[in-house]
Design goal:
Blueprint lengths: L4 E2 L2 E2 L3 H6 L25 E2 L3 E6 L6 H14 L4 E6 L4 H10 L4 E3 L6 H12 L4 E5 L17 H7 L4 E6 L6 H12 L5 E9 L2 H14 L4 E6 L18 H18 L2 H9 L4 E2 L18 E5 L4 E3 L2 H9 L3 E5 L13 E4 L1 E2 L5 H5 L2 H12 L3 E5 L1 H6 L2 E3 L5 E3 L7 E4 L5 E9 L11 E8 L1 E3 L8 E5 L2 E5 L1 E2 L3 E4 L2 E3 L4 H9 L6
Parallel strand pairs: 4-7, 4-8, 5-6, 5-7, 8-9, 9-10, 12-14, 12-15, 15-17, 17-27, 18-20
Antiparallel strand pairs: 1-2, 3-11, 13-16, 18-19, 20-23, 21-22, 21-24, 22-28, 24-25, 26-27
C-alpha cells in the first residue's frame, strides 16, 4: 500500500482504489457517439468534454453526484480525469479511488487563471471527459466579484458547463426561484442542467422539475432520493476518508440509484457542449537546479496517517529532477538511507496516535536523520510530528519526535482555516528570509508553547501571525505550501542538500 510511483504523481490511496470495481473495457466504442474522438485544429484547439458539478452551499450533494458521474462513465469504459476546485485533499481522495487517476486542484488564487488553464489542459487532454467538483456555494470565494476563485470563476476560466446540484428537501416551487436567480445573477455562465438531491417522492420530483424548467428554462436531468445510505459521513473539510469496504458499499448503492434516476444521455450532451479549448501559450518555468553530485532523493511520508499532498507539488518535484521515495511512519519504516531531503505532509495523525507511539525505534532514526542535517520540510500533520508531545482530545499525552521544542494539543474546534500568504522568516539552508509562497491552513490542533525560531509569517484576513519552527535544515509549520507559487524557491530547496555524510 502507498508504494506506487508512476508518471509524475504518487498515488496515496491504493487501498481505496482496490475497492472500486474494475470497469469493463469496451473493445470498440462507435466514433459516431463522440466517445474517443478528439478535435484538434490548426490553432491547437482541442475538444475536451467537461463538466463542473456545483451547488448553492456546502453539504448539498456535490460529492455524491460527482462520484456518481465518475463511476458511471468509468463503468462505460471511458477515461475520466477528475479535478477539484480549491485546496481540498479529501474530495480528490474519493475521485482517485473511483477513477484511478490523480485528482488535481484547480485554484485561481494559488495559481493564476492561466495556470488553471495549463493544469487542466495538461491533465485532461488525454481523457475522454473531465469532471470538476466545485467548492462551497457556486459563487463563494475570496471576497466578492466575478474573479474571486469561486466555482463559477473556475467554470468561466475553463468555459465549462455547470451541472447544478440542488437540495430540494422540503422545497418545491421555491427551487425554481433559486435556479432562476442563478441564471439572472450570472447570465454568461453555461448552466447546462440541474440534478435534484434529497427528493421525497416521484411526485415531488415531477413538481420541482416542471417548476424549474418552466420558470428558469433550465433542464432538470435527474435526481437522488432522500436516503442516508448514499450520503457521505462528514468530517473536517466536509468529508471523511472511507475505508475499502465502506467505499465499495457506498458506491454500489449510489450506482444502483443513479442508473435509474439520471438522464445519462442528456448529461453527456452537456459535457460535450463545452467549446474546444486552446492550448495554453506559456508553460510553468522550470529553473535548473544548482550543481550537485547526484539528483535529490526526497523521502516522502505517505500512508493512512499522512497523505495530504497536492499533486502539483509532487509533480513539480519530479519535473525538477527529484526522485520521490515513499516510506510509512505508521509501519515504522526507516527513512531511506539514500534520501537527501524529507517532505512530511499533513493528514490525520491524531487518529493513529496509539499506533504511532509504538514506533519508538523509527522515531529515534527520524530524529537522528533530521538532527544530522537531512533537509526537511514539514507541513501541518508533519509539523505536529516534530513536536515533543501531542495531547489528544481526551487529555492523553503521546511522545513524538521532539526535534522542535514545542508541544501540541488536539481540540474539538477548528483552530485555523483559509488561504495564506506565507513569508519565510528564518534564514535556513532551504530558504532565505522573505521567500514567499501561497498556501492554505487547516487544523484542529494548537501549539502549547511558542517556538523560539518561527519559520513563517502568515498573512490572514485577521492579521499577521508567526507559524512553525526552523533550524538550519528544518522548516516546519501549519501552512500547506503550494509549490508552483514559487518554483525558484522549491528548486533552491532541492539544490541545497547533498545527502547525509
Amino acid at each position: 500500500m502507498f508504494q506506487r510511483i508512476g508518471g509524475d504523481w504518487i498515488s496515496g490511496i491504493s487501498q481505496l482504489r482496490r475497492a472500486s470495481p474494475s470497469p469493463p473495457r469496451l473493445s470498440r466504442i462507435p466514433e459516431c457517439k463522440g466517445y474517443n474522438r478528439r478535435m484538434i485544429n490548426s490553432h491547437q484547439q482541442q475538444s475536451m468534454p467537461r463538466l463542473v458539478v456545483a451547488a448553492l452551499a456546502s453539504g448539498a450533494g456535490k460529492t455524491t453526484v460527482t462520484i456518481a458521474l465518475m463511476h458511471h462513465w468509468r463503468q462505460e469504459g471511458r477515461r475520466v480525469q477528475p479535478f477539484k476546485v480549491g485546496p481540498d485533499y479529501i474530495d480528490p481522495n474519493f475521485h482517485e479511488a473511483i477513477t484511478g487517476a490523480a485528482s488535481w486542484n484547480l485554484d485561481a488564487w494559488m495559481e493564476s487563471p492561466e495556470g488553471v488553464r495549463r493544469v487542466f489542459w495538461e491533465r485532461a487532454r488525454e481523457s475522454e471527459v473531465a469532471v470538476i467538483e466545485g467548492v462551497m456555494g457556486l459563487f463563494d470565494g475570496m471576497g466578492l466579484g466575478p474573479d474571486n476563485n469561486s466555482t463559477a470563476h473556475i467554470a468561466r476560466i475553463l468555459t465549462a458547463p455547470v451541472l447544478l446540484v440542488l437540495d430540494v428537501y422540503a422545497v418545491s416551487e421555491t427551487a425554481a426561484a433559486l435556479v432562476l436567480g442563478v441564471r439572472q445573477y450570472a447570465p454568461e455562465m453555461r448552466l447546462g442542467g440541474v440534478i435534484l438531491n434529497r427528493v421525497g417522492s416521484p411526485g415531488h420530483y415531477a413538481r420541482v422539475k416542471d417548476a424549474i424548467e418552466e420558470a428558469a428554462q433550465v433542464p432538470v436531468l435527474g435526481y437522488l432520493p432522500a436516503s442516508p445510505e448514499i450520503q457521505v459521513p462528514e468530517r473536517h473539510l466536509g468529508l471523511t476518508r472511507l475505508n475499502a469496504s465502506q467505499l465499495a458499499e457506498w458506491t454500489a448503492g449510489l450506482r444502483d440509484l443513479a442508473e435509474t434516476t439520471f438522464d445519462w444521455p442528456a448529461i453527456w450532451s452537456v459535457a460535450e457542449s463545452a467549446p474546444p479549448l486552446a492550448e495554453p501559450a506559456s508553460a510553468l518555468p522550470r529553473p535548473p537546479l544548482s550543481s550537485r553530485r547526484r539528483a535529490p532523493r526526497v523521502a516522502l511520508a505517505l500512508d493512512d496517517a499522512f497523505w495530504f499532498y497536492y499533486p502539483a507539488n509532487l509533480s513539480l518535484l519530479r519535473q525538477l529532477g527529484a526522485e520521490l521515495v515513499p516510506f510509512s511512519p505508521l509501519r515504522g519504516d526507516p527513512i531511506p538511507r539514500e534520501a537527501t531531503h524529507l517532505y512530511w505532509g499533513g493528514g490525520f495523525p491524531e487518529q493513529y496516535l496509539p499506533v504511532l507511539a509504538e514506533r519508538r525505534r523509527a522515531w529515534a532514526q527520524y530524529r537522528a536523520c533530521i538532527e544530522d542535517g537531512l533537509l526537511t520540510l514539514a507541513e501541518c500533520g508533519g509539523w505536529m510530528m516534530m513536536a515533543e508531545t501531542l495531547w489528544n482530545t481526551d487529555g492523553e499525552a503521546f511522545d513524538l519526535l521532539g526535534v522542535a521544542p514545542v508541544s501540541m494539543r488536539m481540540t474539538a474546534q477548528v483552530q485555523a482555516v483559509g488561504y495564506r500568504e506565507v513569508e519565510v522568516l528564518a534564514s535556513t539552508r532551504a530558504f532565505v528570509p522573505g521567500t514567499g509562497f501561497r498556501g492554505h491552513e487547516f487544523h484542529y490542533s494548537r501549539q502549547q508553547r511558542v517556538a523560539p525560531r518561527p519559520a513563517y509569517r502568515l498573512r490572514t484576513p485577521q492579521g499577521d501571525k508567526e507559524d512553525g519552527y526552523a533550524t538550519d535544515t528544518l522548516v516546519a509549520g501549519y501552512a500547506h505550501l503550494y509549490f508552483p507559487s514559487n518554483v525558484e524557491a522549491v528548486a533552491a530547496w532541492l539544490g541545497g542538500g547533498q545527502g547525509r555524510q
